[in-house]
Hints:
Among the domains are: 27-123, Elongation Factor Tu (Ef-tu), domain 3; 133-237, Rossmann fold (3-Layer(aba) Sandwich), CATH 3.40.50.80. The chain has helices at residues 10-18, 56-61, 102-108, 143-156, 176-182, 201-210, 224-234, 270-273, 284-291, 295-303; strands at residues 38-45, 48-54, 67-71, 79-87, 92-98, 118-123, 134-140, 160-167, 185-190, 197-198, 217-221, 241-244, 260-263, 266-269, 276-278. It contains ten helices and 15 strands. The strands form three sheets. Strands 10-9-8-7-11-12-15 form a seven-stranded mixed sheet, with helices on both faces. A hairpin with a 7-residue loop joins strand 3 (67-71) and strand 4 (79-87). Residues 1-15 have low confidence and may be disordered. With 313 residues, it is α/β, with parallel strands linked by helices. Helix 6 (201-210) packs parallel to helix 7 (224-234). It binds flavin-adenine dinucleotide, FE2/S2 (inorganic) cluster and magnesium ion.
Amino acid sequence: MMSRKYNMNSTDKNIRSAHSKCRIDLRSISPQDLCHRILKREQLADTVALLEIEAPLIVLNAKAGQFVIVRPTRESERIPLTISDMDPERGTISIIVQEVGRTTKELGSLREGDCVGDLVGPLGKPTEIENCGTAVCIGGGVGIAFLRPIVKALREADNNVISILGARDKSLLILENEMKALSDEIYVSTDNGSYGRHGLVTDVLNDLISSGKKIGIVFAIGPQPMMRAVSEATRPHAIKTIVSLDPIMIDGTGMCGGCRVTVGGEIKFTCVDGPDFDGHLVDWDELRARKAAYFEHEKVALERREPTEGCRK
Ligand code: FAD
Ligand code: FES
Ligand code: MG
């Protein structure tokens, strides 16, 4: 890696002192030289991969619930992805990507040693972590990746954490062992009954509620219909329910308006006001319609995709 000298200002000094735990010597790095290299790539399921990426300046400030905006190559579009894990000592963050369209396929096809085009973050408000007694954390599909740092933080705040993981099929279930290690209790369900309980995560949640268990808070992260169904299940019992919204994002800094949602009758920008919101107050129909607005363009972009060349500086 090339090393250019640059003038150190007070922000740089703060970064360096806060970063004293990191084994990477930041004195040898200038911002221009930073290459976000993929140090590890692990296939978690058929179309789901974990990428551990060098990001020493991002890991410094990242907290549970925050995300990054990634461009797999310099020619790619920008996509938001949640920070699923962080290692301050290695100066890395981990993201988990599910290949659903052109850009996630580009990212999924990068290899260990490649650098991503660019990476911006941490973005969004961190999840508010309090001691609520019992916290039920529900993850659906790749949403389990977003849930992991939240479960970790809730345990550190002395909550009793019950995790409920759901997937359409056993082959799509990720991070079961990691979540087991972090949770006090764990339940798994699959839509087709191929593993765990046959049914939906809301079936498990409804059973917990009817058993009389006192639940302080519910976190639900996953596909919109799942987050909506969880919010409807907890509404009659007045259980606080936090969901992580995933509208289309472009800049991730509150400027483009792409991620506009309505919550409690007020307009919010998910990238700066969220992504966490009270699930009982979200206008779910509007969110669904806005997410589907570019469907035809996304189809064409995928059809025109060419093989991705990773950058190796
Ligand atoms: P496309 O074919 O372009 O789109 C497929 C679908 O993805 C669209 O119909 C739309 O619903 C959604 N989408 C497309 N472009 C965007 C965009 N710019 N922003 C948001 N959604 C979009 N996915 C993961 O696999 N792992 C994560 O950790 C993760 N974290 C996310 C965190 C946040 C805060 C948000 C908003 C989304 C997150 N997503 C995550 C979803 C991910 O950003 C989309 O799957 C991705 O942008 C799709 O891009 P594509 O070009 O591959 O697919
Ligand atoms: Fe542009 Fe939120 S992504 S305002
Ligand atoms: Mg796209």
